[in-house]
Structure formats: C-alpha cells, structure tokens
Amino acid sequence: MDQGVAAIWAAGIGVGGVVITAGMGWYAAHKAAAAQVEAALAGARAQFAGQRLESMWQVRREAYTAFLGQVEAARVEVVELANLCDEAIALMEGEAGASLDLETPRQQLAQTFRGLWLRDSALRLSVDVEQAEQVERLRLLVMEAVAAVAALVDEMSARASVEAARGRSHDAINALHEGIVEWTRGAREHLNSARQVPHL
Known about the structure:
Blueprint: H1 3-93, H2 103-124, H3 129-157, H4 163-196
Helix pairs in contact: 1-2, 1-3, 1-4, 2-3, 3-4
C-alpha cells in the first residue's frame, strides 16, 4: 500500500476513534445526568407524598377531634341533666312545691346535639366507609341518650311514674360512655395507620 494512502487510513481511523470515544463519553455523561435528574425527581415525589400524607393526616385528626369534642360536650350535658332530674325527683318526693329548672338545660342539650350533626357531616368527608359507619353508630348512641333523658324530663313534667324512664336514661348514658371509649380507640388506631401508609 502506498504510504500516502496508509497515512490517510491511519488518520481516518484516528478520527473515528476520537468520535467513538467522544460519543461514548457523551452517552455516559447523559446517563449520569439522567440518573441525577431521576434521583432528584424521586426525592421530590417522596417529599411531596410525605407532605400530602401529613396534610391529610392533619385534616383527619382535626375532624376527629372536633367530632369527639362535640360528642363529649353532649355527653356531659346529658349527664348533668340526668343528675338534675335525680335532684328534682328527690325534691318532688320531699318538699311540696319544690322544683328545679329542667327546661333550660334541656334546650341547651338540644342545641349541642344539633351542633353534633355539623361535626358528623364534616368528619364523613375525611374518612372511609367503615369509619363513617362507626361515626354513625356513635352519633346514634348520643341521640338515644338525649332522647332518654328528654323522656325522663317529660315524665317528670307530667308527674307520672319516672322509675322506668330514669332507668332507661341511666342505661343510655352508660352505653354512650362505652361507645365513646370504643370509638376513640378505633379512631386512634385509624389515625396511626393512616399516617404510616400513603394514600396515593
């Protein structure tokens, strides 16, 4: 082969090698950059998922707290009205003409119970079907306790025998207390599991 031709071939091979080497370097750099971008995106997605999970948890926790607070307020007022009824019964059996105002706390209890409906609706938007059913069961226990103590007040106003109504009100109050304990335990477990498992 002519020396000039050989030189041209050698130069061509050298240029090709440089091009291939440069191409391989670009490809490696491109892959490294893509890996860095993907890692950054994965980190951003994980951070967003964590923030979203924490935000959802906070919303649920606030809804749970507001609902439970309203339930407890209703329970306290039911117990106070039942206690007033017990005092009024003792007065009725003792001093002639002695009485206590039962209508004012009864109206206050009715207002508190109406507020519970609003908390109930807000909480239903933040929980799944199973939790919503548990909310409904607890709300029904509150309603039964309110109705029982209201019936006791009615019996007393009518000067009728109150022992049966008195027993029903006490039973309803005890059932409500047990329902609150059970619901609170379930709500706590649900909140803890919701904080650990992202709902994406």
